[in-house]
Write a structure and sequence with these properties.
Number of strands: 3
Helix content: 10-25%
Strand order of the largest sheet: 1-2-3
Shape: globular
Structural class: alpha+beta
Strand content: 15-25%
Radius of gyration: 16 Å
Largest sheet: 3 strands, antiparallel
Number of helices: 2
Order of helices and strands: EEEHH
Length: about 90
């Protein structure tokens, strides 16, 4: 299943959690508790189709150079340096 594009996301009614993901080729992978939507620039379209809310497609659209910065999880050591892919700076 690795490197297989997601074709559809199925939301559990009333729970707001993903119940299953259909991948290219028609295979359906069911989730016990939920699924992580990590489809990059395609996440907005998948969420819009699954929830019926077109706002997702407009909110999560491909944009060059946008990075998400999060607070580190508790217990993670402090990072003093990092590596950045240089194509973001162009």
């Amino acid at each position: 299943m690795f490197d297989t594009p997601a074709a559809a996301l199925h939301v559990r009614p009333g729970a707001g959690a993903a119940a299953a993901v259909t991948v290219d080729g028609g295979c359906c992978v069911r989730a016990r508790l939920g699924a992580v939507v990590a489809s990059g620039v395609w996440s907005g379209q998948l969420l819009a189709e699954a929830t019926g809310q077109p706002l997702w497609a407009r909110s999560l659209a491909p944009r060059r150079g946008h990075l998400l910065e999060l607070d580190p999880p508790p217990g993670m050591p402090h990072l003093t340096h990092g590596v950045m892919e240089m194509s973001y700076t162009k």
